[in-house]
Amino acid sequence: MQGSANLNLMIKAARKAGRNLVKDFREVENLQVSLKGAGDFVSRADIAAERIIRDELMGARPTYGWLGEESGGAPGEDPTRRWIVDPLDGTTNFLHGMPHWAVSIGLEHKGEIVAGVVLDPAKDELFYAEKGLGAFMNDRRLRVSGRRSMAESVFATGVPFGTMTTLPASLQDLARLMPVCAGVRRWGAAALDLAYVAAGRYDGYWERELNAWDIAAGVVIVREAGGFVEPIGADENLMRKGSIIAANPQIFGPFAATIRNTG
Question: Are residues 160 and 105 in the same domain?
Answer without folding.
Answer: no
